[in-house]
Structure formats: structure tokens, C-alpha cells
Amino acid sequence: MATASGSAAERGHLSIVMDTGDDAPDDDGSADLHPLGPVGAAFDKVVDKAWEPLRGNPNLDRLFYTASELADFSLLWHLAGTARGVVRRNGHREAIRLSAALGAESAFVNGAVKSLFRRDRPDHEDERPHKLRQPLTSSFPSGHASAAFLAATLLSERSRVRPFWFAAAGVVALSRVHVRIHHASDVVVGAGIGLALGRLVRKVLPLR
Question: Which of 169, 168, 149 is nearest to 105 (CA)?
């Protein structure tokens, strides 16, 4: 009788374990860890899946890898500001304002904001078609995107080619998704931060 009761108990325990396993979520928990929750995680998956066919295209790879590398440490935007400072009257003031704003943006986003999050970078197991620096900071938000749209907001002021600066910022921001250094939501939030900071700088330090 004890043996029969023990067998029944074991079968009952096994059934509970199996049922628990069936009801467990089959995702990797990314939705729970995402700074924006399940909506942000779903958005990233949709964008990454849609973008995947574009990866491996030699021309697009060259464009986005080059843009991503040139924008490291905001070098691209510092050079653009310096060029504007040379060719425009009183342009040195614009160049100084831009460089100072980019320095403050980097400290704020790459320091203060990123320290609040510990998001992993996108997985990338295959060899990259071009060399690229791999950041060690949190993936969220994108510092490249925030710097790009901050710079575009300032460079476009009193510019006849305003759309060009935002197009360039868009290429840099999208490059981070293409090269799998950032998730799409990292870039969107980073771009939003850059736009907000740019407007703030224009209000606090207007051109005269």
C-alpha cells in the first residue's frame, strides 16, 4: 500500500512539474528587462527583422559602417562645426557653441543617463564586414543618435540646407541599428533626447 501511495504521489508531483513547464513563458525575458517594457521589446524585434535583408549589401554596409565610425566621439559633428566656423562670418561662435553642447550632451547621455540602465548590446556572432569600435556602455539610449540630432538642430539654424543636416543625422542614427551596436528603441530615444537638448541650447544660447 505504501508503495502504491508513493507511486501515486510521484506521478502527481511529475504532473505538476510538467504543467508548470508548459505554462512558463517561452521568451528570453527581454520584454521584462527592456527600459520601455513589452512595447519597446516588440518594436525592436519588428525593426530588426525588417532591417535584416539590408545587412550584407556592400553599398549599404560601406555607407552605414563609415557613418557610424565617423560619428565616434562626435568627430563628424565637430568637424562640421569647425568648417562652418571657418566659412561663415562670426562662425567661430557657432562652432564653439556646438562643441560645448556636444561635450555636455556626451557627459549627460553617456554618463548620467546610461548609468541608469544596464541594457545589453544586440547579439552579433558573425564577423563584421568592416572594423568597428564596440562600446562598453549601456545600449540604452544611443549616444550617437542623441549627438547627431543635437548637432543637426544647431547646424540647421540659419542654414540654407537644413534638411541635409537632419538627413545626415538620420543616417548616423540608423547606422547604429544596421551595424547591430544599438537596438531600434535605443536610437529613437537617443534622437528624441538630442532634439530636446538642441532646442534647449538654442533657447539658452541663441545666435546673435
Answer: 149
